[in-house]
Structure formats: structure tokens, C-alpha cells
Amino acid sequence: MIAALSKEPHSIKPLCKLFRIPRNSYHYRLKNRGIVTSEKALLRQKVVDIHSRSRGSAGARTIAGQLTQEGENVGRYKAASLMKELDIISKQPNKHKYKISEDVSKIAPNLLNRKFNVKAPNQVWCGDVTYVWAGNKWLYLAAVMDLFARRIVGWACSDSPNSDLTTAALRMAYESRGRPQNVMFHSDQGCHYTSFQFRQTLWKYQLTQSMSRRGNCWDNAPMERFFRSFKTEWMPKECYNNYAEAERDTLKYILQHYNTKRGHSYNNYLSPVMMEAAA
Q1: Same domain for 128 and 242?
Q2: For 192-247, what is each residue's pLDDT tens digit?
Q3: Is residue 70 within 8 Å of 46, Cβ to Cβ?
Q4: Does residue 215 lie within any of the structural domains?
Q5: DSSP states of 164-210 as a string?
Q6: Domain with 169 in it: what CATH number?
Q7: I need a surface site. Which of 72, 110, 244, 276 has the fewest CB within 10 A?
């Protein structure tokens, strides 16, 4: 220890005195830095697991939030440090600029009006349709989200973006949630939501229709965010080889990752299923 002290930089002694740190503590830290304890090794493995489950999309905030839910006292900056040590990075989607419009639907008013914070399940559902390339044709996915915990409660896949598709997703939501009453259903002004077939189904289930302003994606932001997460976090960059593969992987994302495992910042990093269970 005496030899070590004699070789220490001249600035260490006044610094230790300034911050009231024993000099032997400094040398202990210097001697043991880089040593990975079993506890840290386990924590590192948890970070790798969370990052792997998200297919490389989880960043420091998400990892810290999910580690906290698992009982680990880890903040954002510590999570970032662990990611740096493990040489893993988060896939970040490119930013898009959207043209904003104020055109109100003639079919239904914008009753939701961006009031996305909902106090209980089955008060407000949102719906939307997206598409992915499936080898030799498009797969269209219609999804219905319960805004309370951002849980996907209805979905359907098809090779045609028509009213049969959106009606099937709505029917699944209605039946799987126990045929609730007094639910608002919000969507964009796509023809598969303004059609007589879809509106008749809403009337049959006694759901109140609400619609975004035309071309205004922010009026249905939670659904836009869900589809963006699916495409940037989960979908392979080279797309899918065929329709069956695309459909299977899409349902895997909803059932085995997004609803059940993916921590959502809106839910304080609980998954939608866990958030509903805790309510």
C-alpha cells in the first residue's frame, strides 16, 4: 500500500481530502475496476435478454424501466453504461414529417380529440390498418387498441384492405372483451371505416364512432406508434418470404411480445397485460 501511495498522482491526495474519501478507498477501486461480480454478470445478462427480446430496439430508458419492474435498482444512465459495456445499441426509427390537415369527417366527429389518457378499460378503442410486404403480395393488418393500457384487443390479417378486414378486427375486440357497452371507437377516415358495412357493425355493437381529421396522424397517435414499433422493432429489414411467414410473425409480435412482454412507457414500463392486471 505504501508503494502504491507513493506512485499515485499528486492530485489524488487533495481531491480525496476535498470529497472526504479515504485514499485507501481510491486505491481499492483502482485495483478492482474491471472485475465483474456475479451480481453484475446477472444484471448484464438481464440487459442482454431485454434487448434481445425487443429485437434490438430497446434503449436505455426502456431497459431501465423493465429492470426496475424486475426489482433491480437501475436508472437510465446506469442502463446506458451497461449497454456501452456490452456494446449493444438501440435501433431508432427515422423521423417523418407529416402534412397536417384540419378536414373534419362528414361521417363522425372527432370526439376523442387526442384525449388519449383513459381511466379504465373498454372506454375508448382505436383502430387502424397497415401493410407489410409478404414475399409476392401485401399483408394488411387491422388492429384495435384499448387506450387504457395500450393493449391490442382485436386484429385481423388479409391480402385486401377492405371492410371485411376492419370488421373482423372489431368483431374480435368486441367478443374478446366480453361485449362491453358505451365504448367509443376512434379511427382515421379510411374507406374501410366509413363504409356502410363497418358503420352497421358499430351500430349493432352500440359503439360510438369518432374519426380523426383527414390526413392528421396525430389524432390517432397511439395506433401510429404501435405500427411504427412493429415495423422498426420487430419486422426483419429484408421483409418476409411469404404470406404465411408474415402472418405468423405478426401475430407473434402481438401475442408473445407487445401485449405480454414489451414494457410501455405509458404504463410505467409494464406490459399492457400487466397494466390491466394491476388496475
Answers
A1: yes
A2: 999 999 999 999 999 999 999 877 778 999 999 999 999 988 998 888 999 999 99
A3: yes
A4: yes
A5: HHHHHHHHHHHHHTTS-SS-EEEE---HHHHSHHHHHHHHHHTPEEE
A6: 3.30.420.10
A7: 244
